[in-house]
Amino acid sequence: MNTTTTIPVNRDVKAELKRQAAEMRQDFARRGTLVINVVSSPGAGKTSLLEATAKHWGGSRRMAVLVGDLATDRDAQRLAPFCPVEQLTTGGACHLEIPLVQRGLEKLGTNDFEFLFIENVGNLVCPASHDLAEHVRVVLLSVTEGDDKPAKYPKMFRTSDVVVVSKMDLLPHVPFSVEAAIADARLIQPDLRIFTVCSLTGEGVADWCEYLDERRQTLVAANAVEETASQ
Amino acid sequence: MHEASLVRSLLRQVSDLLIAHDGQAVETIRVEMGPLSGVERLLVEIAFKRQVNDSLCCGATLQIEDVPLSAVCRDCGDEFDIERFRFRCTACDSPRVQVTGGDEFRLLDVDIQTKEKTIPTQATP
Ligand SMILES: Nc1nc2c(ncn2[C@@H]2O[C@H](COP(=O)(O)OP(=O)(O)OP(=O)(O)O)[C@@H](O)[C@H]2O)c(=O)[nH]1
Ligand SMILES: [Mg+2]
Ligand SMILES: [Zn+2]
After folding, report:
1. Could you read off the pLDDT of A95-154 as tens digits, one per residue?
2. Among A143, A164, B6, B30, which residue has the least CB neighbours within 10 Å?
């Protein structure tokens, strides 16, 4: 005869994916690569920020970009003059996932980068639920989108480390309160670092780049401590 | 948004459990979700109905428990629910709050039918 047995599990359905992402993140750290997942709604200025970042560094950092795009390689073409870049065609998928990142890394060939940027597909919803093994998640919020976006897309802002308020040159032309947007975002994620930039003029880009350098130094230092501890 | 693939993964995990425990069938799958799980209840239910009978979990029912977004204050230790995504301690207003639930799609437990291994002491009527 049959009986019913209850098997306790109590585990995130995505536990295996999370474990895989954590392992990759650790591998990147060991190689001294800071991975930055760049998310925003379509057209908020992700590619422009990466262009401005590369210009600011002027070849003094080893950086690469993996860029997700549904249908074209236009972003990859824009970034190609500055650094190694691989296009991750998502074939209609609304966000990137780890297997696509892995394929992009294989295509890049080498892996000795100091900074690996992953430009996600323009979308404030789905990318929030997908860990790409990044150390830093940055969400761009352009002033033309409205300052209510943090409150309307809480998961995206909750899971991010940095908010870059972009297209600051357009601020005089639109009803957007930087203070209100930041206040809403900080209610959701109090630890958010905030930068305000204009990628066209490069205003604010130096602060952003300095932050990235700091984050990478912290990552490298933490990893060095760990290596000594495990010896 | 990606409920179909999450449900596929859920069914695969439960099927593995069924095999590992040498079970006959899956009766009930209990999961929990909350405001930051990134899944929508109705879409999970639809995806489950579509997929369950093509899996080893054929015939199983899904029980979804809705949980609030819960947190603990890292300053005063207060435990509370987060309303309207306001990540502030309700006791001391500290922003140093740690989410303790409602941000995952969790598999809680599974009821499976197994063959009785011990001989029943009483015959069932
Ligand atoms: N005025 C102004 N325009 C900007 C700025 N940054 C980007 N843009 C413009 O905004 C448009 C979109 O910029 P992209 O960098 O392509 O935005 P994106 O987020 O990469 O877009 P998708 O990849 O399609 O989601 C382009 O026409 C840019 O020239 C800025 O700081 N100021
Ligand atoms: Mg782009
Ligand atoms: Zn408190």
Report:
1. 899 999 999 999 999 889 999 999 999 999 989 999 999 999 999 999 999 999 999 999
2. B30
Residue A79 token pair: 């970034």
Pocket of ligand 1 (CB under 6 A): A 40, 42-48, 75, 122, 166-167, 169-170, 198-200
For residue B80, the SS3 value is strand
Interchain proximity B107–A10, CB inside 8 Å = yes
If you measure from the C-alpha of residue B27 to the centroid of ligand 3, how many angstroms do you get, rounded to a whole number?
A: 42
- Asked if the structure places residue B122 within a domain, the reply is no
Give the structural domain span for B16: 3-69+101-113
Which chain A residues are closer than 8 Å to B86 by Cβ?
187
DSSP run (H or E) holding B111:
strand B106-115
C-alpha to C-alpha distance for A120 and A49, rounded to whole angstroms? 13
Q: Is residue A60 part of a domain?
A: yes
- Tally of domains within chain B: 1
pLDDT in tens, A46-99: 999 999 999 999 999 999 999 998 888 899 999 999 999 999 987 778 889 999
Residue B123 lies in a domain: no
The domain that holds A171 is classified in CATH as 3.40.50.300
Q: Please indicate, yes or no, if residue A11 is contained in any of the structural domains.
A: no
